Amino acid sequence: MTQTETRPRLCRSSYQSNILEYIDTCPQTKSLNELFSSKLSLSSLDQFNNTILDQYLVYILCLKIIEDNDDKNLFQLIHQLLLKHGQISKSIFEYTPPLPSLTSNTLYTMYQSIYNTYSMFIYNEFDLDVLIEIGCFLLKYRLCDIFTISTTNKQTTLRTKYIGFFIEIIAFYYIYSNHNEFYTNNRPNEQMFQRKNLLTSIDQTSQITTLSILNSRQSQSHNDLFEKFLNILYQNGEIQFDLRQIKNLLQMEAYQFINKKLENKKVGFIQFIETIDKKYGQNMKPSTLKSLCRYRIKMCLKQFPIDIRQLNMSISENLQKYLSYDNKYIFESYA
Q1: What is the overall mean pLDDT for the chain?
Q2: Helix, strand or coil for residue 253?
Q3: Residues 38, 41, 44, 46: what is their CA dihedral angle, to the nearest 10 degrees?
Q4: Residue 5: what pLDDT?
Q5: Domain boundaries in the chain?
Q6: Is 222 exposed, middle or buried (0-12, 13-18, 19+ CB in 10 A)?
Q7: What confidence score (pLDDT) does residue 56 get?
Q8: What is the pLDDT averaged over residues 104-125?
Q9: Chain centroid offset of residue 39 CA
Q10: pLDDT, tens only, 57-75
Q11: Looking at per-residue confidence, does 48 or 244 come out higher?
Q12: Are 33 and 73 within 8 A, CB to CB?
């Protein structure tokens, strides 16, 4: 039997599949692009009220797809979904209230149990580099366009939605970098969806030394990628951290998963945010007139970044890249 046939199945639903279980059930020969184009509608919601784009980000995250190293078509598809007005309704681990039909205690308890299993599956499988890379990718868009508020949770604001998404990324990096033992011990040694084994061709006697070198390189990779993420975050211009808002956000039921992971680390996490904001916020304050104009243009365009394409006859290629936050996909995609 193949690994796909023997591994545990993901969460099940009687009325609407989640994209993870849907793809997990489909033949390996079918491409993800084919599944999205032929089987799924942007209006589809799964049993946790995830949009198609929510589900797709989780899929990339769990399969460890990194833009620069793996399948660029998967990131291309994110862009196509965004052009078709696909939207993100939540951060990766954000809790969504059950549907109104699940009002009885029995159904609500069952929903909580399934949701907890679903969240832990993602936590056990997700890759930190991929999570940060997804953040870098999304920050090249106008956040108020690509995020939406779920119909089941109208009590929050759009700004809280996308701040929560990126705060979650920072929180996981904080846990990894400042509480690495806790981060490592809370995750399994083996995952369903494995990365390619870098040690298969290495002599067994040298694997320990090689593994130590790889871990060191991986740590540096996390650090470099996180610094890239912070630079893009502040260049985007749409996010300003309010510490009081972050503290309130961490107390919300929607962010119970990350709140539990932070546990007694919240004071250190808030200080971590303060340090980041002081360093990168100050660097962005003396912004050049050019960067201020770029932000103004982005926020005033009717359809950013699509409208940038219409300027290509009158501006240089370098300026196109600058105005689109170096988002190559807007020039590659004709969706």
Answers
A1: 77
A2: helix
A3: 30
A4: 44
A5: 3-192+217-286, 292-335
A6: middle
A7: 84
A8: 82
A9: 23
A10: 888 887 766 655 555 677 8
A11: 244
A12: yes
Q: Which of 179, 146, 180 is nearest to 162 (CA)?
A: 146
Residue 88: strand pairing partners: 147
Q: Which residue has the higher pLDDT, 32 or 292?
A: 292
CB 13 within 8 A of CB 46: yes
CB 171: neighbour CB atoms within 10 A?
24
pLDDT of 47 reads 74
Residue 8 DSSP one-character state: P
Instruction: Count other Cβ atoms within 10 Å, centred on residue 316.
Output: 9
Length of the chain: 335
CB 308 within 8 A of CB 83: no
pLDDT digits (tens, 9 = 90+) for 82-104: 888 889 999 999 988 776 665 67
As given in the structure block, the two tokens for residue 131 are 């999570």
Place of tokens 């996981």: 172
Q: What is the DSSP string of 176-187?
A: HHHSHHHHHHTS
Confidence check: pLDDT of 308 > 80: yes
Identify which of 169, 320, 163 has the alpha carbon closest to the alpha carbon of residue 236: 163
Note the pTM of the prediction, 2 decimals. Answer: 0.82
Residue for token digits 């599944």? 35
Mean pLDDT score, 29-56 = 67
Task: Tell me the C-alpha distance between 60 and 69, whole Å.
Answer: 13
Evaluate if residue 152 carries a pLDDT over 50. yes
The DSSP bridge partners found for residue 147 are 88
Phi-psi region of 203 (alpha: psi -120 to 50; beta: other; left: phi over 0): beta
CA separation for the pair 149, 89 (Å, rounded): 6
Alpha helices in the chain (DSSP H): 3-6, 19-25, 32-39, 52-62, 72-83, 105-125, 128-138, 143-146, 158-178, 180-185, 207-236, 243-250, 256-262, 266-284, 289-300, 306-309, 317-323, 329-332
